Amino acid sequence: xxxxxxxxxxxxxxxxxxxxxxxxxxxxxxxxxxxxxxxxxxxxxxxxxxxxxxxxxxxxxxxxxxxxxxxxxxxxxxxxxxxxxxxxxxxxxxxxxxxxxxxxxxxxxxxxxxxxxxxxxxxxxxxxxxxxxxxxxxxxxxxxxxxxxxxxxxxxxxxxxxxxxxxxxxxxxxxxxxxxxxxxxxxxxxxxxxxxxxxxxxxxxxxxxxxxxxxxxxxxxxxxxxxxxxxxxxxxxxxxxxxxxxxxxxxxxxxxxxxxxxxxxxxxxxxxxxxxxxxxxxxxxxxxxxxxxxxxxxxxxxxxxxxxxxxxxxxxxxxxxxxxxxxxxxxxxxxxxxxxxxxxxxxxxxxxxxxxxxxxxxxxxxxxxxxxxxxxxxxxxxxxxxxxxxxxxxxxxxxxxxx
Length: 403
Known about the structure:
Blueprint: E1 3-6, E2 19-26, E3 35-37, E4 42-48, E5 56-63, H1 74-77, E6 78-80, E7 84-85, E8 88-91, E9 100-106, E10 111-113, E11 117-125, E12 130-139, E13 143-150, E14 161-170, H2 178-181, E15 182-188, E16 191-197, E17 203-205, E18 208-211, E19 218-220, E20 226-229, E21 240-245, E22 249-253, E23 256-257, E24 274-276, H3 285-288, E25 291-299, E26 308-312, E27 327-329, E28 334-342, E29 344-354, E30 357-359, E31 373-380, E32 389-397
Parallel strand pairs: 3-12, 22-25, 23-25
Antiparallel strand pairs: 1-16, 2-4, 4-9, 5-7, 5-11, 6-10, 8-9, 11-12, 13-14, 14-18, 14-19, 15-16, 15-31, 17-18, 20-29, 21-22, 24-29, 25-28, 26-29, 27-28, 29-30, 31-32
C-alpha cells in the first residue's frame, strides 16, 4: 500500500507564545530541517520574549522510520549526557521588544551521537516542563539515492503535479529482504505534515532498487510562496504597505489575492523558509534584530463552509494554531491576521483546513512548473537490529523537471 500519509501527532511540540524565532538548521544554515551526516553539526537558536535569562535544558530521543520510539537505550544512542543546561545566551540590545537569545550546537563536549536515524530534540525549562521539540535526522553513507522530478504521465495531473522517480544502490553488499527491511519517506520542501511512504521497489537492476511509480509518488506542485522582508524597519520594502513605530513596530502588508485561477508566474522563493536578518544597529541579527507585528490580509470570498484559513510557513514550523488563523472582517470583506515576527525575510502562504484535512493549494493554486525541493530518506533495519538506520538521502529540485 502506498500514498500520502499524515504526520503522526504528538511528535513535535509547538512553542508557547513567548518563545519565538526558532531556527534549527545544519551548520551552514541551508535549511531549517537538519538532515546531516552522523558527526556533523546542527544548530538550534531561539528567543525568549520574557527577557529574564531563564534556564533551559535539552534532551535527546531516538525514533524509528515511522517515528515510533526505537528500542535503544540512551547510552546506545549517544555518548555523554543529555538533560544539559543551555549556557550560550545573550540579551537583546537596543530593541523595542526585549528578549533573550539562546543558542545550542550538537554534537558538543557533553553529547556525541552514535547511531543514525530519526531524532527528537526536546527543550525543557527549569521545572522540567517541556517547552518545545524539533525533529532532525542523522544519516550514514551506505547507499546512493538517485532522485528525479518528472511531469506526471496521467493527463489529469500533467499541469498540476510533480512525480518522483528514484533508485537506491547499496555501496556494499545487497540489502537483505529489501521489500520488508527498506523504508522510504518522501518529503516536499522538508515538510512532515504530508509525506509519501510505504512504497515498495518495482523491480531490481543488479543491486539497484528501482522506484518508477506515477500516482503513488506524486505531490501537488503548489505555487511559489508569497514573501516580505523586514530587514529595515525604518523604510518599506517590496510587498510592505507601511511601517509604524509604536511600543513595538507594526508592519502592514499589501492585501493578497487568491491565485487559484491565475496562471503560474515564476517568483523565486525559499520554499516556505525564513531568514533572520537586520540592517539596523551593527547588523547582528541574533540580538539586534527587532520584532514587529506583521498584519496580513487576504481578499477571499467568505464561502468556506466548515473550513478555516491559516497563515502557513516555517516561521512557526507549519503549525496550525489560533495565533496564525485568519479571521474574516465583514466590513472590509477581507480575512485578516497578525503575527509577531523578528526582522528578516519570510515566505508564507494561505492554506485551508476542512473536513478532509489540510488543503495546501486551495487558495494559491497548483502548477507542475513550481520550484520545489524534494528529499528521499532511505531507512534500513539490518538482521537483528533494534532500530531503523538512515542509510541514504537523495535530493532534487523541480527546476530540473523532466518529461
